[in-house]
Amino acid sequence: MLSKVLLRLGTNAARHPWRVIAAWLVAATLAVLAAVAFGGRPADSMTAPGLDSQRAAELIERAGTGQEGMTAHVVVTPLDGGATFFGDDGARTALTRLRAEVTRLPHVLGTSDPAGALDAGGDTAVRGGLVSADGRIAVVRVQYPDQSRLSAEDLDALVALGDRLRAELPLRVEMGGNLFYAFSDADGGLSELIGLLAAAAILFLAFGSLVAAALPIGMAVFGLTVGVATMTVLAGVTDVPTFAPVLGSMVGLGVGIDYALFVLARHREYLARGLDPQEAAGRAVATAGRPVVFAGGTVVVSILGMAVANVPFMTVGGLAVSIVVLTMVLASVTLLPAFLGVAGPRLGRAGRIVRALRAGRPGRSGRRRDTEAGAVPAAGWRRWIGHVSRHPVPYAVGAVGLLLTATLPVLGLRVGLPDDGSLPQSRTERRAYDLVAEGFGPGTNGPLVIAADPAGDPGVLDRLVATVAADPGIASVAPTHVDRATGIATLVVFPTTSPQDKATADTIARLRTEVLPAAIGPGPARAHVGGAAASLSDVGERTSQRLPVFVAAVLALSFLLLMLVFRSVLVPLKAVLLNLLSIGAAYGIMVAVFQWGWGGALIGLEATVPIVSFIPMFLFAILFGLSMDYEVFLLSRVREEYLRTGDNGTAIVEGVSGTARIITSAALIMVAVFLSFAVADDPSAKMFGLGLATAIFIDATVVRMVLVPATMTLLGRANWWLPGWLDRMLPRGPVGIDAADDTDLESTGGAPRPRLVDR
């Protein structure tokens, strides 16, 4: 049985703590050394098999034009406000030198030559999109090979060159392009520190002991070190997306400290009953460790389930985050009890400051009463849950109405990818974006690449260029490049709108469904629309199509697992529906903030942006797993009380109030950690941070403290109803709550344990 395995694991770790701590030190050291020796840096590859943009990339690669590779652009303007590249020889000379230096960088296949175009005539430079019509802004476009032949060192070399040239040339130098998108380091370090400090403060207030507060932090840091180092090794084997380290740190810190909090709270409860520290640690792992293992497994299964989207970078990103979560689960049931064994009986005592704060606050019997979290008395929570249980209908209706209202903005959800225009002005990519938009129009920041195979029809290309140029969503078409060996042609076209604009996605769709078929005709010729903007649009469409299937699969799996755990039909059904409500409300708030701009300034959002295409699926996977933490932890205690007393009302009040302070403390920690990432520069990090924080806050307050007691009161004894035929079909494995009775100290007092199974 799982509980017996966890009991032995926790007890042995507490009895031999230094062996376990040494093993984790060795594991962390080996993981870091492996990361240094074999690891790689994250890189984004927004492609997926079967997409039209992928077919375009395959055609371009076959032609060998080089346009299938990565690109960057260096945007310059004279520091002298009155100078232009048309008439200022100094500015033109500086531009020539800049291009020459960029061309000499490693792996650069070629660059555009705005100075050479100016020598041929100002009109040539303007028509080629290299110099703005007023002569103030010039662009050097840099062509690199395919991403598989590049690394973050190529981006570092370009950035270092830009830093040097800014000091040496009379030019303002800014940079951007998909080389930055693929290899830029994601935000994280400062956010992690802020999250840790906030978590430490909450833990100290919850436990009243510096030692007790330090243990979950120490465990989380150990686990995060091993998990992120392992992720780095994975990045040396395959492309790990740049959001994975940020998301892994965010989720790892949140769940790691949460899991430790659950176990530590039970440990202190057992210490208060007079058990020695080793036995208390073992029993804490056996009881609180079960929900930890179950919840962590649910998170991992949910995240790995994103493979149904058939988008490789999402699958790899999910695998990377799952590694961190699994590491935290393992640390919670091995490293933490070792820490508890070292700490000994000191964890049962609150610190002097917190004891002073609690003094004089009576419990139900008139004397001070500490809960298992060592916080203020639970009498207040008991009164609240009892109040909700006495008025279940208005509270249930009101809470559901509130969450449905918060969910309404989801109807306007638009997926896409925020472009560089959504970054803060402190980033060179944003400044380059603004200069390009000012000089050449917003669509120049997101060119489309049309790859065409004429299949021997000489008139196809002329028709293609004319038809594409006539489309109202296209601002200009660059000269066509035809590969002589294969006959494959590539057209670089510039939309009239920015990459993240919905009109750009409409233009891409119109090119594919109307413009290109009309130009090519019924013959064997074919054409596909590619480029970064098209790839991101395609990925967004695919994830939107696969999201319902993924959601249905996660809901079904969660229902079955909860039914096995609690031997009930209505409890898991209720849990699934309530989790959907909290996640839907989080989606709605994200739409209101990021698409509508409500309160965006509070998290440093400078412009409205679409929701990143892969974030809804990631958020659903993570949030559904995280909500299982609270669901299993809370309902386990309710189930224990029900088995002890046989009274549904008493079980709800005692079970929910007995876990309320732990759940709210855990939720506060998670919200603090996640919100610390919501102030990062990158819009994706902001969305992950705000979405996770909002959903956890709603789940731990409105759902767990209002809807759960209200709905369970309304259902009454039916909460634990299970048809006899289904009870006989379900396996009685080690995950059931009843399986832990022999390890828990709760006594039934000789009362028969009630069962609600229809025979």
Structural class: alpha+beta
- Tell me the major beta sheet: 5 strands, antiparallel
How many angstroms separate the termini?
26 Å
Number of helices: 27
DSSP summary, beta strand count: 13
Helix content: 55-70%
Mean pLDDT figure: 83
Strand content: 5-15%
Please state the CA-atom Rg, rounded to the nearest Å. Answer: 30 Å
- Described by the principal axes of the CA atoms, the overall outline is elongated
- Quaternary structure type: single chain
Uncertain stretches: 351-377, 738-759
Could you give a quick summary of the protein structure above?
By secondary structure, the chain is of the alpha+beta class. Helices cover 62% and strands 7% of the residues.
Structural overview:
The chain is an alpha+beta fold. The two termini are 26 Å apart. Residues 351-377 and 738-759 have low confidence and may be disordered. Helix 2 packs parallel to helix 10 (210-235), helix 11 (243-272) runs parallel beside helix 26 (683-715) and helix 25 runs antiparallel to helix 26. The protein contains 27 helices and 13 strands. It is found in: Cell membrane. Keywords: Cell membrane, Membrane, Transmembrane, Transmembrane helix. This is MMPL family transporter.
Which characteristics define this entry?
5-stranded antiparallel beta sheet, 13 strands
Structural topology:
Blueprint: H1 2-15, H2 17-38, H3 52-63, E1 71-78, H4 89-103, E2 110-111, H5 114-120, H6 122-127, E3 138-143, H7 152-168, E4 171-176, H8 178-183, H9 189-207, H10 210-235, H11 243-272, H12 277-287, H13 289-304, H14 312-333, H15 335-343, H16 352-358, H17 379-390, H18 392-407, E5 415-416, H19 428-440, E6 448-453, H20 460-470, E7 474-477, E8 481-482, E9 489-495, H21 502-520, E10 526-530, H22 532-566, H23 570-595, E11 611-612, H24 615-645, H25 648-677, H26 683-715, E12 722-723, H27 724-729, E13 757-758
Parallel strand pairs: 5-11, 12-13
Antiparallel strand pairs: 1-3, 1-4, 2-3, 6-9, 6-10, 7-9, 8-9
Helix pairs in contact: 1-12, 1-15, 2-10, 2-15, 9-10, 9-11, 9-25, 10-11, 10-14, 10-15, 11-12, 11-14, 11-24, 11-25, 11-26, 12-15, 13-14, 13-24, 17-25, 17-26, 18-23, 18-26, 20-21, 22-23, 22-24, 23-24, 23-26, 24-25, 24-26, 25-26
Protein name: MMPL family transporter
Region (Disordered): 740-759
Domain Membrane transport protein MMPL: 46-394, 489-721
